[in-house]
Amino acid sequence: MVGNQKKTQTGFVLITSIVFLVALTAVASVLMLNSSSDIKMSGASEEKLIAVQAAVSALDETVADQIRGNVNLFAGKDFPQPVNTITSVAVSSVVIDNELDSNEPTDCPHTTLSSSNQLLKCNVVSIAVTNQYGRNNTSEVRANANIAQQLLNVGN
Length: 156
Prior knowledge:
156 residues; alpha+beta; 1 helix; rod-shaped; transmembrane; membrane; transmembrane helix
């Protein structure tokens, strides 16, 4: 009698292992998707940091060029002035502008002088650097600096 019993397999173990395999594959693909998103985000963050550093370097180079006396666009009266002497980094545009409505010197910001007749005035200019970055240059970063030059006001 024992020899006449026929064993039939239902495939329960096979079906269970396929279900576990599908579940593990789904978990692995989700983890890989998150990993690729993290890599893209860190790459974009690095690209923005490089663009910001280039903009700040262009600001520094513009100020250094004016101090060295190569071209003193700060002393001019025709604003805005585009700057095309930046050689250390590649940026989209650098512009020097006068923040005042007139080109006449004004009282210096953030200073109080003991002189009652205000012999020192200031020429206030701003430097604006625009740098594009990202895929197809679709993003933009801007860096600004305001500069106040003290001038002796003898035309009072």
